[in-house]
Amino acid sequence: MKNTLKQVFGSGQFMMGFVIISLIVLTIIIYPLFNPGNPLERIGIGTFFKPGTYVSAFDTVNARQFYTLNLPDAEAKRVGSKLSPDDRVSMMEWLVAAGVSEEDIDIEDTDSFVQLWWDTYDPNVRFDSMTTAFRKKIGRIDVALEGILEDMDVIIAKEGEDGSLAQSSVVAGSDYVNVADVANVRFLPLGTDNFGRDVLKEMISACRTSLLIGLLAGAIATLIGLTLGLLSGYIGGIVDDIIMFVTNLFTVIPGFVLLILISFSIGQEQRGAPVVAIVIGLTSWVWTTRSVRAQVVSLRNRDHVNLSKLSGHSLLRILATDILPYIASYVIMAFILQVCSGILAEAQLSMLGLGPKTTEIPTLGLMMYWAMAYTAHLGGAWWAYFPVVILIALISFSLNLMNTGLDQVFNPQLRD
């Protein structure tokens, strides 16, 4: 046993897969300790907030202390943030038409670019090659620039007793607030989803649920496949014929189609995560049965098995002590693959709207379903689905690496 474990953990592929899945499991365990609470809590009043740090504007304006910083590039950054790439290109087109050499224009250098614009632009100048729509667009950009630079101060007003507004204070363009002094700051590394929920927190919880579904589905499928394969391969005869008839019947019917039909017939309200896992397990045992049967057929006439028969040992004892230990490594590999298949099957079902009901707990498949249903891919909200795809791929990759490593250890042909 010790030598076997040494060989297993000495396999590079197994260790790589084991490390990846271990890191995922550790993250699932540790992260909720630092960010507890309901993963389905809606924290965003809106949809698809992009990743970043969110600071309360109210707390910032009403901070106890302002710090004056004279940063030379502050104004340029303010202006630059208001000028979109399309606006810069349009301004450059106007400058080129006005006779400015394109080599003298650097649209990335906001200071020099805006200064060149002020020195050159004349709203009364018109070019025959410019359309009316383009001239109006340039005029809007110029007016917006003037508005930005006209007054950098922000006036804070409050309502008086007579209902009139009076100036309370002024926040100058050089005033800064230390984030540590702001009462409410929230870091959203993966933004929010279509419901305004923290994607990272939701994904961690969804990963835990999907792994549990995969483990339960894999255990059920492996147990059924192992039992039927042992009985079919060892007993043979009419028992083998009946089991193989049922197995072939399930083989003819595509497993995923059967899974869809069963899930649809159960109904949305009854489809909790355990129910989905059981359904996946009950429809994915076929290939395990056939594989185990093939292994048992090659073992049932071995000398140690015949000796047990002559000794009068029971069927259960022969299967448990004389056959199962010889195929244990294969059963473990089958279980790993069944877990991987269960996770992918849940994701596929949920993408079709047939996964666990959406009001209880998140799963990786449900996150994909919500993102696609609310067209995150069309709106550029990549954070709502791309990390989920990467996580599913990492889980599948790690489990398959572990299976390949075990196969190299226990398969003599591959080991040689």
Briefly characterize the structure.
This protein has 416 residues and is mainly alpha-helical.
Structure description:
The chain is 63% helix and 6% strand. By secondary structure, it is mainly α. It folds into three domains: 2-44 and 194-415, Orthogonal Bundle (MetI-like fold), CATH 1.10.3720.10; 55-69 and 152-188, no CATH class; 74-147, no CATH class. The strands form three sheets. It has a two-stranded antiparallel ribbon. Strands 2-5 form a two-stranded antiparallel ribbon. α2 runs antiparallel to α17 (386-410) and α8 runs antiparallel to α9. It is elongated and about 105 Å long. The two termini are 21 Å apart.
Quickly count the helices.
18
- pLDDT averaged over residues: 86
CATH class of the largest domain: Mainly Alpha
Q: What general outline do the C-alpha atoms trace?
A: elongated
- Let me know the CATH homologous superfamily of the largest domain: MetI-like
- Main sheet: strands, sense, barrel: 2 strands, antiparallel
Total domain units: 3
Radius of gyration in whole Å, from Cα? Answer: 33 Å
Cα separation of the termini: 21 Å
- Level-2 CATH architecture of the largest domain: Orthogonal Bundle
State the secondary-structure class.
mainly alpha
Please give the order of strands in the largest beta sheet: 1-6
Strand content: 5-15%
- Total beta strands: 6
* Helix percentage range: 55-70%
- CATH topology description of the largest domain: MetI-like fold
Weakly predicted, low-confidence segments: none
Topology as a string of helices (H) and strands (E): HHEHEHHHHEEEEHHHHHHHHHHH
